[in-house]
Amino acid sequence: METSDDVDAKAANRARFELELEFVQALANPFYLHSLAQQNILEQPAFINYLKYLLYFKEKDYARFIHYPHALHHLELLQHPQFRARLKKDDAFREYLHHKQFEHWRTWLARLHHISPA
Q1: Is this entry keyworded Transcription regulation (predicted)?
Q2: Worst-scoring range by mean pLDDT, 17-31, 77-91, 103-117?
Q3: Within 13 Å of residue 106, how many CA atoms lie on the same side as its CB?
Q4: Global pTM value
């Protein structure tokens, strides 16, 4: 029989998971990444450790909850200091990421529906 402490712990774990999932999915947005870089958040050691911790979302049991696959790609890229530094110093890089993401979805949808991309 579950105690109220068990129920509270499960609720707390679920809330934490949902919060982490929402954050990881936000990483799919190049403009959000740029904002984090401009605020120097990507330079903070505690935040870098948090990004490393969030890699558990790449495991099959957790990746299935991700709706925006670019989030996992960006999470992986954020593990590299060069990527984090480039986000901060290069506004054109944000646009490049956005363009690459757009092109991926445009051509992926075309392949999915068996039509040639415009």
Answers
A1: yes
A2: 103-117
A3: 9
A4: 0.77
